[in-house]
TrEMBL record:
<dbReference type="InterPro" id="IPR004372">
    <property type="entry name" value="Ac/propionate_kinase"/>
</dbReference>
<feature type="site" description="Transition state stabilizer">
    <location>
        <position position="177"/>
    </location>
</feature>
<keyword id="KW-0418">Kinase</keyword>
<keyword id="KW-0479">Metal-binding</keyword>
<dbReference type="InterPro" id="IPR000890">
    <property type="entry name" value="Aliphatic_acid_kin_short-chain"/>
</dbReference>
<keyword id="KW-0460">Magnesium</keyword>
<feature type="site" description="Transition state stabilizer">
    <location>
        <position position="238"/>
    </location>
</feature>
<keyword id="KW-0808">Transferase</keyword>
<feature type="binding site">
    <location>
        <position position="88"/>
    </location>
    <ligand>
        <name>substrate</name>
    </ligand>
</feature>
<feature type="binding site">
    <location>
        <position position="381"/>
    </location>
    <ligand>
        <name>Mg(2+)</name>
    </ligand>
</feature>
<protein>
    <recommendedName>
        <fullName>Acetate kinase</fullName>
        <ecNumber>2.7.2.1</ecNumber>
    </recommendedName>
</protein>
<keyword id="KW-0547">Nucleotide-binding</keyword>
<dbReference type="InterPro" id="IPR043129">
    <property type="entry name" value="ATPase_NBD"/>
</dbReference>
<feature type="binding site">
    <location>
        <position position="7"/>
    </location>
    <ligand>
        <name>Mg(2+)</name>
    </ligand>
</feature>
<comment type="subunit">
    <text>Homodimer.</text>
</comment>
<feature type="active site" description="Proton donor/acceptor">
    <location>
        <position position="145"/>
    </location>
</feature>
<comment type="pathway">
    <text>Metabolic intermediate biosynthesis; acetyl-CoA biosynthesis; acetyl-CoA from acetate: step 1/2.</text>
</comment>
Length: 397
C-alpha cells in the first residue's frame, strides 16, 4: 500500500510518499516560493541523490501538478497503487478528535475553523481542494494537529473566562503538535515494552515551535499550547506564556495596534526577541563567544521547560519516561542536560556520555537504574499522518 502525505502551507507544499508494508519513504520533497517570481522544487527519490528544479509556480494548482508530474515520470507509483492521500490540517477544533475521510462536510467544517487558525487552515484547505481536483478518484484523509489533545479533561482545556466565550466562540485550549506527541508516545511505549495505554509520559517537542504534553495511560491530559500555538514554552520567535495584561500596556504606552502586538508576540519574541536570533545552533555559537543576551536566551528557554516538567509531574503523579523530540530536542545535548539538572527528586538523572550521543532513532540517556526514564526519540510526523490515514481507510472499508 502506498500513501502520499501532503502538508500545504501558504507558500509551500511539503510531501512524502510511503510504502506502508515496510514504512519506507519512496519520495520526499518540498515545493516552495509558490506565488513568487521563481519557485523551487527540492526532492529525493529513494536511493538517488537529491534534486532541485526551478520554475514559475504561481499557485497551489501548479505546485501539485508539478508533484504529480514527478510521480508519473519517475514511475514511483504504478496504476492504481496510490491507496490514499493524507493531509495535515492544523486545527480540527472540537469537531475532529481523530482523522477523517474527506468529503464536502469535512471540508466545510475545516473551513468553519479558519477563525481559530487563520494562518494555517486556509492553506491546508487549498492543498485538499487542489488534490481532490487532480486526484479525486483517490481516497483522501485529513489528519489534525489538535486531534490527539481531544482527550483533555474540561478542567484542563477551559480558560477561566465567561462561559459564553467557550460555548459561542470556541475559546478553549486545543493544543498542537499532536501528531508528533502521539508518534513519540507510541515509540516510547514500545521502547519500554508496554502498551501505549499503560504508560505515563511527558513528551517535549522542541523546535522553532515548541510544546510539552502530559500523557496518562496513552491519552493527552494537558498540553502547553493553548487556543493558538502562541501559549506555553518560550520558542524561536514566539513569546510563550506572558502576562495577558501586557497587551493593554503595549497599546497604552506604545500605541501598538492589535495587529502589531500579534506580530510582535508571534514573530519577534521568544529567543529572537531576547538575543536577536531564533536558530538554536547560532544562539549556542553566540553564547560560546560571550554574548550575554544569547546566554540569557538559553537560560530562559531551559528554565521554562523545566517548570513545565515539574508541573506535569504533579499532574501525572507517576511518570514512566520523559521524552525529548523535535529538531532541538533530538540534537541539543546541552539543553537536555540543563532541562533535567536538579530534578533528582523526581527520579531524573542524566548520563552525560549517553546524552552527548543518544542512540537513533530512539535512545535512553538516563543513568542506570533510574526511576524515570529519559528518552530521545526522532519524531516522524509525516509517517504518523500516513499511519492514521491508513487506519482511517481500513476503518471505512
Amino acid at each position: 500500500m502506498k500513501i502520499l502525505v501532503l502538508n500545504a502551507g501558504s507558500s509551500s507544499v511539503k510531501y512524502s510518499l510511503f510504502e506502508m508494508s515496510n514504512q519506507s519513504i519512496l519520495l520526499t520533497g518540498l515545493i516552495e516560493r509558490i506565488g513568487e517570481s521563481l519557485g523551487v522544487h527540492r526532492y529525493r527519490l529513494a536511493g538517488l541523490e537529491p534534486q532541485t528544479t526551478e520554475e514559475v509556480i504561481p499557485d497551489h494548482q501548479h505546485a501539485l501538478r508539478a508533484l504529480f508530474r514527478l510521480i508519473s515520470t519517475s514511475a514511483v507509483i504504478g496504476d492504481g497503487e496510490l491507496a490514499c492521500i493524507g493531509h495535515r490540517v492544523v486545527h480540527g477544533g472540537e469537531f475532529f478528535r481523530e482523522q477523517a475521510l474527506i468529503d464536502q462536510q469535512v471540508i466545510d467544517r475545516i473551513d468553519s475553523l479558519i477563525p481559530l487558525a487563520p494562518l494555517h487552515n486556509p492553506a491546508n484547505l487549498l492543498g485538499i481542494k487542489e488534490s481532490l481536483r487532480q486526484m479525486g478518484d483517490v481516497p483522501q484523509v485529513a489528519v489534525f494537529d489538535t486531534a490527539f489533545h481531544g482527550s483533555l479533561p474540561d478542567y484542563a482545556y477551559r480558560y477561566a473566562l465567561p462561559n459564553a466565550l467557550y460555548h459561542d466562540q470556541g475559546v478553549r485550549r486545543y493544543g498542537f503538535h499532536g501528531t508528533s506527541h502521539h508518534y513519540v508516545a507510541k515509540q516510547a511505549a514500545d521502547f519500554l515494552g508496554k502498551g501505549l495505554n499503560e504508560v505515563n509520559l511527558i513528551t517535549l517537542h522542541l523546535g522553532n515551535g515548541a510544546s510539552v504534553t502530559a500523557i496518562e495511560n496513552g491519552l493527552s491530559i494537558d498540553t502547553s499550547m493553548g487556543m493558538t500555538p502562541l501559549e506555553g514554552l518560550m520558542m524561536g520567535t514566539r513569546s510563550g506564556d506572558i502576562d495577558p495584561a501586557l497587551h493593554f500596556y503595549l497599546h497604552r504606552t506604545l500605541n501598538l495596534s492589535l495587529e502589531e502586538i500579534e506580530n510582535l508576540l508571534n514573530k519577534n519574541s521568544g529567543c529572537k526577541g531576547v538575543c536577536g536570533e531564533n536558530d538554536m545552533r547560532t544562539i549556542h555559537q553566540m553564547a560560546d563567544a560571550g554574548d550575554v543576551n544569547a546566554r540569557l536566551a538559553l537560560a530562559m528557554y531551559a528554565y521554562r521547560i523545566k517548570k513545565y516538567i515539574g508541573a506535569y509531574f504533579a499532574v501525572l503523579g507517576r511518570v514512566d519516561a520523559l521524552v525529548f523530540t523535535g529538531g532541538i530536542g533530538e540534537n541539543d545535548h546541552w539543553l537536555r542536560q540543563q532541562c533535567c539538572a536538579g530534578l533528582s527528586a523526581l527520579g531524573i538523572a542524566i548520563d552525560a556520555e549517553k546524552n552527548r550521543a543518544p542512540a537513533r532513532p530512539c535512545g535512553a540517556i538516563h543513568t542506570d537504574p533510574s526511576p524515570t526514564k529519559v528518552l530521545v526519540i526522532k519524531t516522524h510526523e509525516e509517517l504518523e499522518i500516513a499511519l492514521q490515514a491508513q487506519a482511517c481507510l481500513e476503518k471505512s472499508v
